[in-house]
Structure formats: structure tokens, C-alpha cells
Amino acid sequence: MRYLDMKRLSPFSFSQSSSLFELCELIPAFAIPAHLVPQNWLCSASSPLLEDCLMWKVDSKLQSMGGIPVSKRRIFAICNYIKQRLLFPVHKWSMEVLSRLRTDGTFNQEFPLSLLREEKKNECYSFDLKSATDRWPLSVMFALMSCMFGPTLASSIVNSSLGLNTFLVGKLIVKRMSEVAFLCGQPLGYYSSWSLFALSHHYVVWLAAKRAYPQRTTPFKDYALLGDDILITDALVAQ
């Protein structure tokens, strides 16, 4: 698991560069000279920084990537290839679902807000969940996935792949090598981590609307949501 200071590096640049340095350390162990690695692999879209890493040019590459100016400190979990490969179909599915929700702003942040402006409501309630990815209960994500795919597959995705993970924190971060785990929430950096969280946030809004209006038969659409940020124009649902 990586701790990073957002004053200088973006999360993508930090996690990717660290993984690439580890890969460079593994190449001599397998007795594979860098110049024998297939060029079509080096130049593939999935590894744009790998060639620079083998040529030891990563430092200059990182300096050109910029950073996030808000000086946040985030934790990114570096997942192994097998879990990422297994979670990728779930990620594609959940992102496709988000793209079809008119109340979601993942692919167009302005669109759901423009729909709310057309309604000309007099009230609006804005919420920003604090440390949402770390604190959002996995049980909510499990309940949503169970409704659609059953408890067995839901447990494999949410509990086994996202929830039950341990990470080593090295001596560069702490005084002594230690093993940590997420007691609540799930690791940012895994495929489907963010998209399932966003989808389960929609699920909570729908549940609140169902409880506020038990006789309602049409979908609740008086809100705009993007990850952990949400704007609701209905007082009962917001409460």
C-alpha cells in the first residue's frame, strides 16, 4: 500500500512508477536483458511508461505529469495482476451501468445538473461524504450485487476480491514493516472499486426515495450524483 503526498504527484503517476521500478528490479532476477523484451510490448497502450523505465527515464516523466493542487493525502492499494484481471469485467459492467443513468455525472458532470435546473425546484440539498471510499460499508455494495447476481457471486466480488485484502507497509513509510487491512470500505486502486461504490451510492438514494414515497411507482430522478458528491432537490429523500 502506498501513502502519497498530492502536493507533487498525481495518484496515477505515483502508483504506476512504483510498480514499474519493482518490475525493473525483477528483470535481472529472470535473466532477461532489457533489450530482448519485445518492442511491440514496450510500445503497447497498456504500458506507456515501461520503455522509459527500462531506459531509466522515469524521473523526467514524472516531473511532466503535474499534480493535484488541493494537497490531499490519499492511500492507494497496489493490486496483483490476477485480482485486477478478474475484477476487470465487473469494472466494465458497472461503468456501463453508470453511463446509462441520467442522474450520474461520471461521463458528463454537467448533464445531470442541467436536468435539475430544467425542473426549477426551490430546494436543493448538497452532500459530500467524507472519506467515502475508506468508510463506505462493504455490506451496502454486497446487498446491491446480491440483488442482481445472487449472494455467491456478490461475495466473491465484494468480500473476497475487494474486502479481504492485507497490505505490507514498508520501512520508507513506517519505522517497522507492518501488515494492514481495510476494516471498513475497500481499497482505492482496484478495478470496480470506485464504480461499484458510485453505483451503491445510487442504490442508497433509491432506497431513501422508496422509504420516503412507498406508493411511488416511477424511478426517483430528482438528484445528481458523482461518486461521493450528491445534490438532491427533494426534502423528504434528503432527510
Quick recap of the structure?
This is Reverse transcriptase domain-containing protein. The chain has helices at residues 11-29, 39-42, 50-54, 58-63, 81-100, 111-119, 132-135, 138-163, 193-212, 235-238, and strands at residues 2-5, 73-76, 125-128, 166-169, 178-181, 223-226, 229-232.
Please describe the topology of this protein.
Blueprint: E1 2-5, H1 11-29, H2 39-42, H3 50-54, H4 58-63, E2 73-76, H5 81-100, H6 111-119, E3 125-128, H7 132-135, H8 138-163, E4 166-169, E5 178-181, H9 193-212, E6 223-226, E7 229-232, H10 235-238
Antiparallel strand pairs: 1-2, 3-7, 4-5, 6-7
Helix pairs in contact: 5-9, 8-9
Outline the structure in words.
With 239 residues, this protein is mostly helical. It folds into two domains: 76 residues, no CATH class; 160 residues, no CATH class. The chain has ten helices and seven strands. The strands form three sheets. It has a three-stranded antiparallel sheet. A two-stranded antiparallel sheet has the order 1-2. The longest helix has 26 residues. It is globular, with a radius of gyration of 21 Å.
